[in-house]
Amino acid sequence: MKICKLFLVSGRVQGVWYRAATQQQALGLGITGYAKNLPDGRVEVLACGAEENVAELEQWLWQGPPLAKVSKVERQALATGVEFTGFVTL
Fold first, then answer.
1. Where are the domains of the chain?
2. What band does 85 get if pLDDT is binned at 50, 70 and 90?
3. Neighbours of 41 (CB within 10 A)
4. Which residue, of 31, 36, 63, 75, has the greatest Cβ tally within 10 A?
């Protein structure tokens, strides 16, 4: 079943290659969506794909790349129907 979830990741997640590493993980899992920096220092991640793959990405978001220090990952389920053809960083 395809699902979409929006994640808000807090901590030291900007300036540490978090978006690029998230993109790499997502593409490897066949997930579409995006990762973008927010003005308040968080990273917003929209992930659409198979439920188990989105769950696997969510677990990875808590870790992130080596220089990241994640303190919180908030998530929201979204209505499906959002379509992306890849995973981009914004």
1. 2-6+17-89
2. confident
3. 13
4. 31
Hey, what long-range contacts does 18-26 have (CB within 8 A, 24 or more apart)?
18/43, 18/64, 18/65, 18/68, 19/43, 19/89, 20/65, 20/89, 21/64, 21/65, 21/68, 22/57, 22/60, 22/61, 22/64, 22/89, 23/87, 23/88, 23/89, 25/57, 25/60, 26/57, 26/87
What class has domain 2-6+17-89?
Answer: alpha beta
Amino acid sitting at position 81: G
Q: Catalytic positions, please?
A: 19, 37
Please, is 30 exposed, middle or buried when counting C-beta atoms within 10 Å of its C-beta (0-12, 13-18, 19+)?
exposed
The first and second tokens of residue 75, run together, are 């998530």
**Given the structure tokens 């900007």, which residue do they identify?**
14
